[in-house]
């Protein structure tokens, strides 16, 4: 890994990585280095990486099969690249802590986000380590949540009253809903490579804990959501143009800070499918 320069950002997670070009085809050894760094640091930050959509897609595809988002707009001819173009008339909706697309059987192992246009100030993204958050729980609470599973539901994050307004949206939303029925995942998942345990419920997609009365489910979920978001478990990234960020979506959560409106902010994301959580 000699040519790579790695700077850890916070005790909980995150490292800035330089000494490579994400635009070039990945060698097998570089791919393995990046995969290893991702497991170690959970979120990798790359500055000055002016990549095309095709290059972003190819980089992402070397780590797994790509997800095509059922709702968000896509780059023409590159359906695997999702566009987040937010401004005064289209405020962002990634404003709850979440892991991406946890509502499917094999939620993404990671996602790669490239900054295309940034507001003059603001629009940072914050990631939290759900392994650090899990580790900080008491043994009693760990035991309480160990056997629990939770329902993750596409319509919880993409509600009908926001995403099915025009006839075209309605058609797309109905299709997306039919293709994405609710799924059940463990509340605590194990990272398939590191073996670390992580809290795997999130405000966007998790509807309820299976088998608990509604009030108990809500109380545990609310506690876990605010616990994961504690500043100690986070890293906050101030974007510059051509930054690219690669996060491990299995054991982190993130939130996009929506403090820049009415300015415009454009990000492109590639999303890599993962395994069934266990
Ligand atoms: O816009 C951002 O900074 C992040 C948005 C988001 O949640 C995502 O790309 O998955
Ligand atoms: Fe996200």
SSE layout and pairings?
Elements: E1 5-8, E2 15-18, H1 28-41, E3 43-46, H2 53-61, E4 74-75, E5 78-86, E6 108-117, E7 125-129, H3 130-135, H4 139-145, E8 149-152, H5 154-157, H6 160-163, H7 167-179, E9 183-186, E10 188-190, E11 197-199, E12 206-209, H8 214-228, E13 234-237, E14 244-248, E15 252-256, E16 265-273
Parallel strand pairs: 2-3
Antiparallel strand pairs: 1-2, 3-14, 4-5, 5-16, 6-14, 6-16, 7-13, 7-15, 8-9, 8-12, 10-11
The chain binds 2-oxoglutaric acid (AKG) and fe (ii) ion.
Describe this structure in words.
There is one protein chain. The protein is 26% helix and 28% strand. 40% of the residues are buried. The protein is globular, with a radius of gyration of 18 Å. By secondary structure, it is of the alpha+beta class. The strands form four sheets. It has an eight-stranded mixed beta sheet with strand order 1-2-3-14-6-16-5-4, with helices on one face. Strands 13-7-15 form a three-stranded antiparallel beta sheet. The protein has helices at 28-41, 53-61, 130-135, 139-145, 154-157, 160-163, 167-179, 214-228, and strands at residues 5-8, 15-18, 43-46, 74-75, 78-86, 108-117, 125-129, 149-152, 183-186, 188-190, 197-199, 206-209, 234-237, 244-248, 252-256, 265-273. The mean pLDDT is 96. Strand 1 and strand 2 form a beta hairpin. The protein has one domain (5-273): 4-Layer Sandwich (Double-stranded beta-helix), CATH 3.60.130.10. Bound molecules: 2-oxoglutaric acid and fe (ii) ion (FE2). Residues 94, 98, 100, 254 line the site of fe (ii) ion.
